[in-house]
Amino acid sequence: MGTAKRRIRVPPMTEAAAGQLMSRLDERVSAFAGQIDELEGAVGMQILGRLFGWKVLVLVHNKRTIRKYEEILGINVREEFPDVGPLAPKSVGLEFVEKAGKFWKAVSGDYSVPDKRDIEA
């Protein structure tokens, strides 16, 4: 019989922080011209970055994609997000590279990470 996973609690955003985030997203989306799938990916990165942290983002995306999304959003992921967010423990890839002590080698592509995009329940 398996053990039950502990539910991770995500601290809620303050009303002011949520309003500021939505205002900034509204502004960036309104000013955007390009492919809608790129915009969708960038907005998703903004939301998930707060929850998972920048380490998970740079592990699963290549440098070009991160730069493109940063440009769309007008942010720098390492300044905008914590290195690990409250849901980072759900990242299979981050857990794998941290145990191996090879985070930056994995980011650069010098270390293969199986299932690096998978999230556990």
- Helical stretch count? 7
Q: What's the average pLDDT?
A: 92
User: How much helix, percentage-wise, in residues?
Assistant: 55-70%
Regions with little confidence, pLDDT below 50 for 5+ residues:
none
Write down the overall geometry. Answer: globular
- Measured distance between first and last alpha carbons: 17 Å
Per DSSP E runs of 2 or more residues, the count of β-strands stands at 0
Characterise the protein shown here.
The protein is globular. The chain is mainly alpha-helical and 121 residues long. Helix 2 packs across helix 3 and helix 2 packs across helix 4. It has a domain of 73 residues. The model has no long low-confidence stretch (mean pLDDT 92). The protein is built from seven helices and no strands.
Task: Give a quick rundown of the structure.
This protein is mainly α. Helix content is 59%, strand content 0%.
Features:
single chain, 121 residues, mainly alpha, 0% strand
Note the topology.
Blueprint: H1 15-31, H2 36-52, H3 54-60, H4 63-73, H5 77-80, H6 92-100, H7 103-108
